[in-house]
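Give me the fold.
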Amino acid sequence: MRYLIRSVKYFFYLLIILSLMIGVLMSLHLVESDLDKLFVNGRDSLWQIALLMAVFSAVYPRFGYTTRFVPLAGSFPELRPGALETMQDAGYVLEKETEDTLCFRRRSPLSRAMKMFEDRVTLTHALGGWNIEGHSRDVMVIASKLRR
């Protein structure tokens, strides 16, 4: 279900950015204001562009979000303070906590909006370390910081 929600969000995110770019170009008179002249296939190009964005949006969550294991020795109570400090230094705040899981969100509202409010990073204690789940780039940064 999470995959579908991320795909739909990303589709609308792309749609808004593309619309804004075309709108700016039209308002600056850098391109034709008539959609039939703007695109090679006229208005018929709109559904083709939307289809291309839908395909890209359907594939993106597969590569954009990941889970990574970071090997660290210790129990949950031993590793928790280091994880909290690392996440705070990375710009995250603790959202919720269970007996072996820590969920974090970005501290900055602007940063959250830029990530389409899909900024949650979850650290789950596993035998021998942490399983980190979230946006691929964030997971890689946090994994390298936790290893220090």
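The two ends are 34 Å apart (CA to CA).
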